[in-house]
Amino acid sequence: xxxxxxxxxxxxxxxxxxxxxxxxxxxxxxxxxxxxxxxxxxxxxxxxxxxxxxxxxxxxxxxxxxxxxxxxxxxxxxxxxxxxxxxxxxxxxxxxxxxxxxxxxxxxxxxxxxxxxxxxxxxxxxxxxxxxxxxxxxxxxxxxxxxxxxxxxxxxxxxxxxxxxxxxxxxxxxxxxxxxxxxxxxxxxxxxxxxxxxxxxxxxxxxxxxxxxxxxxxxxxxxxxxxxxxxxxxxxxxxxxxxxxxxxxxxxxxxxxxxxxxxxxxxxxxxxxxxxxxxxxxxxxxxxxxxxxxxxxxxxxxxxxxxxxxxxxxxxxxxxxxxxxxxxxxxxxxxxxxxxxxxxxxxxxxxxxxxxxxxxxxxxxxxxxxxxxxxxxxxxxxxxxxxxxxxxxxxxxxxxxxxxxxxxxxxxxxxxxxxxxx
Length: 422
Ligand SMILES: [Mg+2]
Fold this sequence. Notes:
By secondary structure, the protein is of the alpha/beta class. It has 16 helices and 15 strands. Residues 206, 208-210, 361-363 line the site of magnesium ion.
């Protein structure tokens, strides 16, 4: 044993598998063995093969590979008294033989227990700058949080990294980081850690300017020659300046007399948002249910439901009589409060608690739904919506929402592999 190593208490020499391992006793001597260098197959097996000769137990292992370089950290119980020097020499000799660097640090116990209050912070950058990363990390520290782990979720179409944070409550962290994100121009989502995060099982989306790039009523209006007039009313309604229901009736009235064949034309004109198919396909492959609620029209949403394999869809219905649009909608209007009601109804039908739902939308009429959901995501939203939602995505790719749910690019690609050629 080297002179600098404190004498081991009797428990340290206990044979493998006994309850007196360092995991059960924070004061037991432990060795941190760190291996660094060019990654190749067999490194982990080689290290533990070397350590096995000393009857040490594994307390913790962390390994990461970045651009072909491996960092492998193994925390093990100290070897029996008198053998540490030999262990050190053997590990260094093994590392030399495979062109790796080794560092072995003596100490006691394990990591300190993580603080109370645990959150996942996802940061999306396009690109993700060093400046933004520094500011986010400093902001986490300023709220009293500690970063326990960092890993990359995706490198395409955005750079997405996740920080596992402890020691601070989710709400103040979310508030602090929302301000930072807005200033930096990156997207940050903060969600509470825990099993329920993996249990989010219903995603409900707005349609116009969220699932699709268009405002459906404007597509109809183009056929009626009143596109400009309708677009102005739509913009005012989405900014929250007009009562949604009044504005809907006013705009639909402008469509009176249009031939019903226009419905098929509008369906063919609808452009999905980039990433929409990937989002839905991945969610479905992970067992999520997916629905849409729209202040637009069932004539379009029913078609989307069928094409995309959605579980739920609800919207207003354009009244058609004698082959023509009457300029009226039938049934109860889907407005701001109606969207939140529909989220609750879908959640009930799906058997998913409301706190385990995700809602995505861009307009003022989505706000009640975004706030009612467990996670509300403002997608390329108007400023008042962005500020009021839990989190905002400001890159024009709908599949980036997956990263906010902690889904990795690998899982997205795995869903792709199951895809029948469309
Ligand atoms: Mg919308």
